[in-house]
Amino acid sequence: MAQPHDRGPDFLERFVALLEGDDVFCVATVIRSDKPGMPAGSKAIFLRGGGVEEFGFGDPARTLRSQADRALDEGRPRIIALPEGVEVFLEVQRPPARLLICGAGHIALPLSRYAADAGFRVTVLDDRPEYASAARFPDADVVAEDFIPALHALAPRLFRHIVVITRGHAHDLDCLGEVLHWTTDYVGQIGSRRRLAFIKEELARRGFPADALRHRLYGPIGLDIGAESPEEIALAIAAELVCVRRLGAAHAFSLRGRSRAEAP
Amino acid sequence: MTDLALARRLLQLRRDGLRVCLATVVEAAGSTPRDVGAKMLLCGDGATFGTIGGGCGEAVVRSAALRMLASGQGPGLVAVDLTQGPGERDGDVCGGRMRIFVDPG
Questions:
Q1: The complex's ipTM?
Q2: In this structure, are residues A240 and A189 in contact, taking their beta carbons and an 8 Å threshold?
Q3: What is the pLDDT of residues A119-133, one digit of tens each?
Q4: Which of A190, A219, B48, B82 has the fewest beta carbons closer than 10 A?
Q5: Taking the CB of residue A139, how many other CB atoms lie within 10 A of it?
Q6: A98-261: in CATH 3.30.70.940
């Protein structure tokens, strides 16, 4: 049910707090009004499950519940016309996709920046505190712990995009062995085709046959733009992440070409 | 710029005592440079953060925002027409129309 008149501190503070969380919500804004007591700029926030918080909106917020639920279901914005010349803009806010970068080395630095700029919420994991430090990664959450226990402690449902770029194939395999159990949209693995072939053989031995990885594991990682430097490789990875998020795995794999996507 | 980054910036600017307008694209028909939901901050000193598509449309919103901040007038809608011909001077030729809600807070 509605929680009326939960004004909270201030709309903007509440909005930021919600955006920092992991819930979907809908913001209603009065964009035009001839109605006394309900000026343009009045706001209400609709949460999933029935919660309403109003900021100058008043009781009419409740009458918008079904439209807000529809917007929440469809994920699309809409404008609703109400009596007395009132127009309300409904906008759905989804939490940003989270990206987990395993390995805090040379590529992770530019990748964390590019991915954060492109709207991903980034977490960087490495077992070396001197590499996985907040000073090195101002745009990311940083976890400096051993890979496997750290991956066990993370909430897998939050991370659907994972980049595996540790300093060696043993750590890579440890990370892949964990995250491939998660429901993911993207798991990318650094390495040459030769190294990828070795990693895939090892994964098959650990219960992940090549067939099961065909449209899950992006390796060698990144769109093929001829990247050489860490920054270029990070750009290729960021571009692939955007492609997966915007257009889906089928399109992203089609850009890789059959030979690369289906290499053993 | 993500909505979170923009909202944090807006919160900071207002805490610093600055007057800032938030512009949000609430309607977009035809071919427009940004989709519904695109946002931009416009400060009284002319500084901006984010974009609703650049060009003429943004210039119209910028002058509306500055007018609002100078006059103390409340929030309102600004209509932008991007359907002028390619030959027209300074015309935006994307081919669409937008409505933008500008809120001085």
A1: 0.89
A2: no
A3: 899 999 999 999 999
A4: B48
A5: 15
A6: no
